[in-house]
């Protein structure tokens, strides 16, 4: 009996007691190589070789921290979402007039638009995952992609491509269903969908901006949930799919504020996924009360209590107390711990050092080992 309880608390499948969101600070070598590729000093093949070497190094560093899960740090991407979305069939990249506005900072300009029928066929990130899978060894390789919601939320849709909204969301779900199967066939058993739209739907300020675009936040949440459920329906039983919800993460700044209450019931009771990575590193995320809508005993909640926005380590006792608070709404066995976001949602990265990043991840592992021992 004791062994069964211990195995249950330690978790052998994703998400893990000590987990991570995915992106890591780009190394100096990666940054330099990308600049050299942009200026024509090295070829795409030479850049990829450097990426392979640096990803291999940081995968070993992740293993050294004690994590059971490894990612490629999103080292081959400039953005957490645009790079994946613009390689879907029917989507094109363009230079936007301005970047995305965060508090006190703005990203560089980048945009995507839907110009044709959506599909998923020969996507370059399949090769990226296969490389990670090949070096993961006994660890679980985790692939991160943007949620289907993000194409609608961040992209422009040309009427020549889709004049009917229902057709657009149907095709979007179909493209993602193909993507999920393709990653599975490449060996992926742990897929994470990153989604900032739900955090916007928790913010009164952001909902006003959504309404100003002629959209209804309530209808939007229903559409997004339906599309996600259609995309993940029928996935193999041994594939775990989680969702990370974020309030913005660029150069250690943020966009939205507001607790999960407005979307909690839709997320926790209606989305057919295996777990949620929830940002909980500041009061902007509200309290744990919305977790009362977690009714499924198989749904894992990964508490993002350790911040990736600055390098100072949190007091372990404070983190443990907050985990205890969350366990009043969700059984401890259904809880896990991670940083609230990645360390570099864009290639610029947050304002901390690589050494501090590894210390943060080791901090997550150490605290989790104490809590679920």
TrEMBL record:
Biological process terms in GO annotation: methionine biosynthetic process; methylation
Residue stretches making up the Cobalamin-independent methionine synthase MetE C-terminal/archaeal domain: 20-348
Keyword set includes Transferase: yes
Keyword Glycoprotein: no
EC code: 2.1.1.14
Enzyme class: transferase
GO MF, any single term: 5-methyltetrahydropteroyltriglutamate-homocysteine S-methyltransferase activity
Coiled coil regions, renumbered to chain: none
Protein name: 5-methyltetrahydropteroyltriglutamate--homocysteine S-methyltransferase
């Amino acid at each position: 009996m004791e062994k069964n309880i211990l195995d249950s608390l330690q978790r052998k499948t994703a998400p893990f007691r000590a987990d991570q969101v995915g992106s890591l600070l780009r190394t100096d070598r990666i940054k330099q190589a990308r600049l050299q590729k942009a200026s024509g000093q090295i070829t795409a093949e030479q850049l990829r070789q450097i990426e392979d070497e640096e990803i291999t190094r940081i995968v070993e560093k992740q293993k050294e921290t004690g994590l059971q899960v490894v990612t490629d740090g999103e080292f081959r991407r400039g953005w957490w979402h645009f790079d994946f979305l613009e390689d879907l069939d029917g989507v094109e990249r363009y230079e936007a007039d301005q970047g995305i506005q965060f508090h006190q900072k703005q990203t560089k300009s980048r945009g995507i638009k839907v110009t044709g029928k959506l599909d998923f066929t020969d996507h370059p990130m399949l090769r990226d995952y296969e490389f990670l899978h090949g070096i993961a060894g006994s660890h679980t390789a985790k692939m991160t992609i943007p949620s289907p919601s993000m194409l609608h939320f961040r992209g422009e849709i040309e009427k020549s491509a889709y004049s009917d909204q229902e057709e657009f969301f149907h095709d979007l779900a179909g493209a993602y269903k193909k993507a999920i199967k393709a990653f599975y066939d490449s060996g992926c058993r742990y897929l994470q969908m990153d989604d900032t739209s739900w955090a916007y739907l928790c913010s009164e300020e952001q909902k006003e901006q959504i309404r100003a675009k002629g959209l209804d936040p309530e209808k939007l949440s229903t559409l997004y949930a339906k599309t996600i459920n259609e995309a993940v329906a029928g996935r193999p039983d041994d594939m775990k799919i989680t969702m990370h919800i974020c309030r913005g993460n660029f150069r250690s700044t943020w966009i939205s504020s507001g607790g999960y209450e407005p979307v909690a019931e839709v997320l926790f009771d209606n989305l057919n996924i295996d777990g949620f990575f929830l940002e909980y590193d500041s009061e902007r995320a509200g309290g744990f009360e919305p977790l009362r809508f977690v009714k499924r005993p198989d749904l894992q909640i990964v508490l993002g209590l350790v911040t990736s926005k600055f390098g100072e380590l949190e007091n372990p006792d404070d983190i443990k107390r907050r985990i205890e608070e969350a366990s009043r709404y969700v059984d401890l066995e259904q809880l896990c711990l991670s940083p609230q976001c990645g360390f570099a949602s864009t290639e610029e990265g947050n304002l901390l050092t690589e050494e501090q990043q590894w210390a943060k991840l080791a901090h997550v592992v150490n605290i989790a080992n104490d809590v679920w021992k």
